[in-house]
Amino acid sequence: MDRTAARRRETAETTIDLTLDVDGQGDARVDTGIGFFDHMLESFAKHGLFDLTVDCDGDLEIDDHHTVEDVALVLGAAFAEALGDKRGIQRFADRRIPLDEAVASVVVDVSGRPLFRFDGAFSEERVGEFTSVMARHFARSLAMQAGLTLHVEVAGENAHHEVEALFKALARTLDDATRIDDRRSDTPSTKGEL
């Protein structure tokens, strides 16, 4: 089964080319123009075992909002495309991931019904050129575009650790939920579709 996608998005604010292999090795090549965001996307790929390429030319002279949001939208669309009818996937997963004093919790249902809940706050306004609250917005935008029911909690004392724990928890949870269950040949829903 080929669970890959290639997506392009071009607007007045960003131009993005992205490829995703859900069943990859964790290889990433990322260039968004925001160093910390690149690091988070590389961490997401590594810990989710997703092969990911992202090239984004965004309006960073304004701020980081459009770049982070649009990459999340394109990544979410790529997940939706790569998973197709979601036949055989685990569907549900949850993870708690620590990073030093910080911890993030992510619970996901690959339901096709987008919903996002967030609890917590980031300890500092920025990490490098990355606005900390954009981590929350990234997760929300990803959930809306990929059709995920996604619940996220973050706690800690250092925004770098809090954001990184969130991206790692999101990666591990999505890896778990999108894995194929060899016992299942159908879509994991009593409705017959997701």
From TrEMBL:
GO molecular function annotations of the record: imidazoleglycerol-phosphate dehydratase activity
Subcellular compartments: Cytoplasm
Pfam hit, one: IGPD
Keywords: Amino-acid biosynthesis, Cytoplasm, Histidine biosynthesis, Lyase
Pathway the protein acts in: Amino-acid biosynthesis; L-histidine biosynthesis; L-histidine from 5-phospho-alpha-D-ribose 1-diphosphate: step 6/9
Protein family membership: Belongs to the imidazoleglycerol-phosphate dehydratase family.
Name the UniProt record assigns to this protein: Imidazoleglycerol-phosphate dehydratase
Naturally occurring in which organism (per UniProt): Haloplanus litoreus
